[in-house]
Amino acid sequence: MNTMLVVIYVVFAVAALITLWRIVIGPSILDRAVASDVLLTEVMCVLGAEMAINHHTRTLPVLLIIAAVGVFGSISIARFVARRDQER
Description:
The chain is mostly helical. The chain has helices at residues 3-25, 29-54, 60-87. The radius of gyration is 16 Å and the shape is elongated. It is found in: Cell membrane.
């Protein structure tokens, strides 16, 4: 395995653990939503780095699906929070 890829995996693993901590602790739903977006972005960065280092594009569809899930999830959470704020 490439040394650069191992370094990238370690750095993003530490960042993912910190992000998971924020998802678990919260304190609000918006904090959890932002942390989940950060986690999806970290996964996308790892996949993109792996593609660039190994010179392939096999995981490009996975990147596109992850990006779409992140966008639609953020929009859904924003609409839910906006509706909840209007009811108060």
